[in-house]
Amino acid sequence: MLPLRGVAHDHVRLVGRGLVARVPRWSQVGLDAAANLAHQAAAFRRAEASGRTPRLHRVIAPADGLPMGALLVDEVVGRPPRLPGDMAAIAVALAALHHLPLPPMAARPPLVSPPDPVAAALAQVERQAAAFDAAPLEPRTRALLAAELAALRPSLPDAPVPVALVGSDVHPGNFLIDTAGRAWFTDLEKAQYGHPAIDLAHASLHTSTRWDPQVDAELSPAEVAAFLAAWEAAVPLDLADAVRPWLTPLRRLTWLRTLTWMARWAVEGEALSAGMPAALARHMRRYVEDVFRPEVVERVRADFRTGC
């Protein structure tokens, strides 16, 4: 058994085989056991051509003693990222994912592919924003977030929406760095077809770089800009050009999407984190307190004004 770092999966190393069994405990996207396995298997298979995700070897169907089944995938031998030094490697891994050939709409299931991924993410933020009213937030924080929500829709550009295979849950803690310095994205449970700028935001926002206690760092605006430049250098020019107008607006959207979920966690943390290791739960409580401090909210907002 590998150390437990979250609540959705157990991981078991098959010693001497170069494989890891990825054993779901439950589905974070609400799927039953068979649908969850099919979704994750499709994600691993489609991402394999990027060369930056583990290769899927076998799907083990649900059975007695293994109610959610399992996936056998390559073991990635590596360490957690060290920020900011490994952000360029993460950018290259995301670029490899984002410029994979896009299948026609009919061939995309079982992965989610909303007709307009920006509209879908916006609707999610506006739906979840009610959590701000229930969470124990300081009045100054509440006022700042209300201003950001009001600015969200007007900030979205009137520009074509590029779509690619995206990892979605691409916080740095979901990457491993191998001995050659390459980054590998290891958690494809939430992979879908969406907007690359949401991935770029999710990988580099304060709410993501502080999420995993083994990473727990904060990037400066200059370091975020260097990360984005590394991604642009690794993708085709037409994709970079299509994504550029969306970088700052979708950074705001992704930040608010994360904060609305964290506001819910502030109210329902015990129920949402059943089974989480005690040390990780303590980190989460400190993390939630930090991301909602007025001075932290102000600092993140300043990034939007500088375009990072």
UniProtKB/TrEMBL annotation:
| One family name in Pfam for this protein | APH
Domain spans labelled Aminoglycoside phosphotransferase: 17-233
* Gene3D superfamilies xref list: 3.90.1200.10
The name under which this protein is listed is Phosphotransferase
